[in-house]
Amino acid sequence: MKSVFPDTVALVEVELNKLLPAAAAPPEKVHHAIRWSVFAGGKRFRPALLLATGKAFNATTETLIKTACAFEMIHTYSLIHDDLPSMDDDDLRRGRPTCHVRFGEATAILAGDALQTLAFRTVAEDENLDVNTRVALISELARAAGTPEGMVAGQALDMEAEARQVNPAELEEIHRHKTGALIVAAARSGAIIGRATEAELDAVTNYGSHLGLLFQITDDLLDVTASAEDLGKTPGKDAESRKATYPGLYGLDDSREAAAKAYRAACEALERIDRPTTVLRSIVDFILNRTG
Amino acid sequence: MKSVFPDTVALVEVELNKLLPAAAAPPEKVHHAIRWSVFAGGKRFRPALLLATGKAFNATTETLIKTACAFEMIHTYSLIHDDLPSMDDDDLRRGRPTCHVRFGEATAILAGDALQTLAFRTVAEDENLDVNTRVALISELARAAGTPEGMVAGQALDMEAEARQVNPAELEEIHRHKTGALIVAAARSGAIIGRATEAELDAVTNYGSHLGLLFQITDDLLDVTASAEDLGKTPGKDAESRKATYPGLYGLDDSREAAAKAYRAACEALERIDRPTTVLRSIVDFILNRTG
């Protein structure tokens, strides 16, 4: 899909370019692999969400941008590892060979490992943030990325669920961990940098969790309905690998209804935030209507 | 090998048991895999070194123990990933099947990923440390674990060097990254928690880097000379896979001389630290004389 905001993409990519090790620095192959996957035309959805939420709470770009990049590093590391032959075994990502196809499995594993490390280092060393905030953000990011609450737990649950029929509660549990946790944490991290109150953070959490669900349902729908060109990867892959998906469990019509419901809930959550939320609202619109 | 200090092992394992997700918590398989590898009879060398260095600088066990466990988590994650078929392809570790042999490749990758995440979360959430110290430790740990300066860089350089003759400078470069960086950082982190001065930190860095070199040379020597029983893994594996090693490059006698030289340099570095360093000295003695 196209990005939520093209100007965010440029901003994030300039900063990522500064934060990542140079491709010419040894070990060159690992650094090439990192840059191959990070600069593969990603949507930068999590950084855009973090920046938009932070700005709703009056935080400056300067205080938000490095943490936004740290979220993109964690997201990219997870894509590299999830694509590996022993995991989802994907050869194509965003229209290009996946990291292990291009650089070999060992280098892909190391590139993912190094990207995860760099995400935490980036936040720990961000001198635009006071140390209390850095520590809070590292905890937030780690909980969303790891187990038992986060992304790695979701990937493990997703793989366990392959080749068996999951029930609605299990499907939600998989997605809440696998994609939801990091999306919620991106929104919350923007709000944390903007010094949101506890009540505001609760509302942001609510917004993020409905937005995350919407993101996943539309992702599942696109896997069924979009063309390979729009998607940048092979459509129909979920059904083929018997992944747990919304269309697989509910059918297309009910999945679209579930998306509409998540959309409304995300918008309602925004109404409880007494801040300028136009941009956060436009993100929900964008995700509902995305075509790739 | 036996541990440097048996009482440290018990202390570290009690704390690791508290910090790691319960095996019964979902995703169970990943949590079982994490515990399988973490509680596999490791020597706890890095935690022991961190605790000993911290105590030389008057830090309490309470302020040191969680960071010590974080180092063991990073070390264990690296063993799990290094043992994978596409990396060093090891079936046996400490006398037991490696993580991917026991739980499958996908679970081993996820277990390593989650352990790395938990290491950073553990330090970020350690309420026995002020936030300035936590941030400094996370930066220290991340630099030692990642690229271009740390462990992942070392593993990449090591794999690049397989099946070709390396020169002495390249061999040192590999080991300085692959094992040295984390050992140096463990010693430094103890000193940081103990509020060492910059001059003291420099001396600790010096001590750690000679100790790290000694550790690697004796490790290489044991791969040639020790029995499988003492080693808990298949000896001769390095030569078979054409890994870059000290005995491979220098022969046994010159490697033993290099070990003696590293031993003396580590002891000399300790003489420049005006603190009670008896325990730090006994670690150097132990590593020189280890038999497994």
Q: What can you see in these coordinates?
A:
Two copies of one chain form a homodimer. Chain A has 292 residues and is an all-alpha fold. The first copy, chain A, has a single domain, classed as Farnesyl Diphosphate Synthase, CATH 1.10.600.10. Chain A is built from 15 helices and two strands. The first copy, chain A, has helices spanning 6-19, 28-38, 45-56, 61-82, 99-103, 105-124, 131-145, 151-161, 168-193, 198-225, 228-231, 237-240, 246-250, 252-271, 278-289, and strands spanning 92-93, 96-97. The first copy, chain A, has a two-stranded antiparallel ribbon. In chain A, helix 7 (131-145) runs antiparallel to helix 9. The longest helix of chain A is centred in the C-terminal third of the chain and has 28 residues, at 198-225. Chains A and B meet through helix 2, helix 6, helix 7 and helix 8 of A and helix 2, helix 6, helix 7 and helix 8 of B.
In short:
Chain A contains 15 helices and two strands. Chain A is mainly alpha-helical and about 290 residues long.
Mind describing the biggest β-sheet of chain A? 2 strands, antiparallel
Helix content of chain A: over 70%
Order of helices and strands of chain A: HHHHEEHHHHHHHHHHH
Q: What gyration radius of chain A follows from the Cα positions, in whole Å? A: 18 Å
CATH superfamily grouping of chain A: Farnesyl Diphosphate Synthase
Topology-level CATH name of chain A = Farnesyl Diphosphate Synthase
Shape assignment of chain A: globular
Strand content of chain A: under 5%
Task: Please report the total strand number of chain A as a whole number.
Answer: 2
Give the assembly state of these chains.
homodimer
Biggest chain pair interface: A-B, 48 and 48 residues
Strand order in the sheet with the most strands of chain A: 1-2
- How many domains of chain A? The number is 1
Judged by helices, strands and strand pairing, the structural class of chain A is mainly alpha
Q: What's the pLDDT, averaged over the residues of chain A?
A: 93
CATH C-level of chain A: Mainly Alpha
**Segments of chain A where pLDDT lies below 50 for 5+ residues?**
none
The separation of the N and C termini of chain A measures: 4 Å
